[in-house]
Write a structure and sequence with these properties.
mainly alpha, globular, Double Clp-N motif
């Protein structure tokens, strides 16, 4: 199945690169992807991460786990880490398994959660996010498009 990526998910990947540069990282980590997801308008206002978690609380916890260096500016290549590449692969696999035509933010979140050892997955899990709930959101969203 040849799949595309939604405009929202495309913005997330672009924003993750900007997050990495802002925090002075030479690579896009799982934390940068999660921060970019939390900044995306489509996610704001939804209780994707459990009733007790606010987006600001999640962002604060992610930032505590980031290594912060001097910001990077200018045209520079900021590659994905192997872990971030795995997240994208898992998001693609998830969309394929659900027979969805495009990879969306929900699939990216599932990809993060399936990459259990990454910092972003650990933070999401602590805040009540589960693969099952994310799948429900992905299925619901696909049915309403």
């Amino acid at each position: 199945m040849s799949q595309g990526i939604t405009e929202e998910a495309r913005r997330v990947i672009f924003s993750a690169r900007a997050q990495a540069m802002h925090y002075g990282s030479l690579c896009i980590e799982s934390e940068h992807i999660l921060l970019a997801i939390l900044d995306e308008r489509e996610v704001q206002g939804h209780h994707l991460f459990g009733e007790d978690s606010s987006l600001e609380l999640l962002k604060k916890e992610i930032k505590k786990n980031l290594a912060i260096h001097e910001s990077i500016s200018g045209p520079v290549e900021v590659p994905l880490t192997l872990e971030s590449k795995l997240i994208l692969t898992l998001a693609f696999d998830e969309a394929s398994e659900l027979c969805h035509k495009q990879i969306g933010i929900e699939h990216l979140l599932i990809g993060i959660l399936r990459c259990e050892t990454c910092v972003a997955a650990k933070i999401l899990s602590i805040h009540g996010a589960t693969i099952g709930e994310m799948r429900k959101h992905a299925i619901h969203r696909a049915q309403n498009q």
